[in-house]
Every structure is written in C-alpha cells, then in structure tokens.
Design brief:
CATH class of the largest domain: Alpha Beta
Helix content: 40-55%
Radius of gyration: 21 Å
Number of helices: 10
CATH superfamily of the largest domain: NAD(P)-binding Rossmann-like Domain
Order of helices and strands: EHEHEHEEHEHEHEEHEHHEH
Largest sheet: 7 strands, parallel
Structural class: alpha/beta
Strand order of the largest sheet: 3-2-1-4-6-7-10
Number of strands: 11
Strand content: 15-25%
C-alpha cells in the first residue's frame, strides 16, 4: 500500500510509541492527527513531524476516556483532511502494586484509559471507515496481553481486553462481509519510553524497564508495516516473540518465567520509591519525549552487533571445516 497522503490518527502521540509512530508516518508523507492530553507535548510532536517532506499535522488535545472528545477528534480529522485511513489506538497508562494495594480509583483509571479509550477510538474510527469502505485500525497491545504480569494487574487485564477487542472486531467484519477494513493488533515487548517513570507505583520499589529493552522506533516500524500488509497480530521484539510462543505451547511455564522475571528485573530491589499516582490522573508536564532513557536503541544495536559477530564467527568456522574436509579428501 502506498502511504503518502494517507490520513493517520494517533492517540497517545505526546510521547513514547505514539510519538515515534506519528513521526514514522510523517516520514512517509502522511497527514498525522495527533491526540493526547498534553497540548504542549503534542505541539512538540507536530514540530518534529512537520520536518518531513509532504507531512501535514493537526493537533487535537484529547482525553480518550471522554467519548465525546474522541468523536470530536474523528470529526476534526475528517473536516481537516477529508477522511481517516489509519487509526492507531495507543494511549495507555499503568499502575504497579500488589493486587490489594493499588487504590481502586487507580485500578479503574487504567481500565478506563486502556480499554474504554480503545473502545471509544474503535467506534469513532470504524464509523468513518465504514462510510469510506476502507481503513485500518491498529490497536497497540503488549506481550502482557498474552502473558500477564504480577504487580501490574490492571494493565495486564487491559491488554488481554485489547487482544479480545481486536479478535471480536475482525470476526464481526468477516461475518458482515466487510473486506476493505482491517483490524490489527501490535504487541510490543519492553520498550524504551517514559511509560515506566509515569506509571502509578505502590510497590515501594522503583519501576524499571525489564530487559531486553527495544526502541520505540522498532514498534513504529511494525505499525507502518502492518498498515502496508495487514496481519491479525504482530509481536515486536525477539524476546517477546519467544515468550508469546511459549505462552501458547506451555502457558504454565510462561507464567512462571514472567513472574520470576518481573519480580527480579522489573522492580529495583535496591531502590525504594514512594507511593505515587504517577501520570494517571494528571498528565506529566513538559514537551514529552520518545525515549525513556532505558537505552533501547543502544541495546538493540549491541544485540545486533553481537548476533552479527556470532554469525560471522560461525561462517568462519564453517569455512575452516569445509577447507579441512577438502584437504583431507
């Protein structure tokens, strides 16, 4: 599919995956409609997007838990650009803590943003896409939608719900005979974004990005690719793919692995942290950022270098064996 001049709506475009995704579509010459609660951060995203040839931007501050605001977002996009070709449901929040310790108001907020926000976005997007007869809805889920995590119960619940939403929408479109509209789910592993610093936290331990950590640009590329070539579900990151495969073949083992890894490397045992609502109820201040400082790009580059070195070493070894075999012959 040719992406230039496509109209793309991205929620949660103020930082992290949403911001990287908006920039990736802008790089392809798309018109990007940027939505999130923070207008200042959206304007900063728009400035980056506008640097790319052919890109056009529209900033629409939006709280995705407000159904009217999301409907207005879709209406603004159509008024400005005439259509909506792609809608990316991405806005999400998180709350860490033992199940009994997370305040119910925070629990509900995570579910409201991560589930009902996606429901609002899907309804607004599909309303427009049905009229057009074409369009792609992309829901950003997580590997936590396949393998739940301890200490982030509402987030894990919400991401399972996103998986179910995508599946049920695809089925509905199929039985209705709709062929021009696609619903795709993208499941990232741990990504280097400000998400962890902005999460509510009731663990008394600092939340850190659980390795291996991948870059937001990697997820953005996956989103662009799935729009070009629609697929049901796409997992981002080799470690995530391995875990999801394991979850489908041996769910009990996958649960044990995730429980151990989360407790060991998602929460810092050596650094205490105060209880905080994070950015659940009030957006984080400032212009936002794509990266969270967890080294996703650097670590990805290091892993690729290591793999390349290993492959090169294997090739040299294979060459020597073949050479010795010829000499011995």
């Amino acid at each position: 599919m040719r992406l230039r001049n496509q109209v793309v709506v991205v929620t949660g475009a103020s930082s992290g995956i949403g911001r990287a995704t908006a920039e990736a579509f802008a790089r392809k010459g798309c018109a990007v409609v940027l939505a999130a609660r923070r207008e200042e951060a959206l304007e900063a995203t728009a400035e980056e997007c506008a640097k790319h040839s052919g890109a056009r931007t529209l900033v629409v501050p939006t709280d995705t838990t407000d159904v009217k605001a999301v409907d207005d977002l879709a209406e603004r996009a159509v008024q400005e650009f005439g259509r909506i070709d792609v809608w990316v449901n991405n806005a999400a929040v998180n709350a860490f803590g033992r199940f009994e310790d997370v305040p119910l108001e925070d629990f509900r907020k995570v579910l409201d943003v991560n589930v009902m926000g996606y429901v609002h976005g899907a309804r607004a997007a599909l309303r427009v896409m049905r009229q057009q007869g074409t369009g792609t809805l992309v829901n950003i889920s997580s590997i936590a939608g396949a393998v739940s995590q301890p200490y982030s119960h509402p987030y894990s619940m919400s991401k399972h719900a996103v998986q179910g939403l995508g599946s049920s929408l695809r089925q509905q479109l199929r039985v209705e005979g709709v062929k021009g509209i696609h619903v795709c789910t993208v499941m990232p592993a741990t990504i280097d974004t400000p998400h962890f610093e902005q999460a509510a936290n009731y663990t008394r331990r600092k939340v850190v990005a659980m390795p291996p950590v991948y870059s937001p640009e990697r997820v953005a590329k996956a989103v662009v690719d799935v729009v070009r070539h629609p697929q049901r579900e796409v997992v981002v990151g080799p470690a995530g793919k391995a875990l999801v495969r394991q979850a489908r073949k041996a769910p009990g083992r996958a649960e044990r692995v995730m429980a151990r890894q989360t407790d060991k490397s998602h929460l810092d045992h050596g650094q205490e942290a105060p209880h905080t609502h994070g950015a659940l109820h009030v957006p984080a201040p400032g212009e936002g950022a794509v990266h969270g400082g967890w080294g996703g790009r650097r670590r990805t580059a290091m892993r690729r270098t290591a793999v390349a070195a290993a492959l090169a070493g294997a090739a040299v070894t294979a060459g020597r064996r073949m050479s010795h075999g010829r000499v011995g012959a």
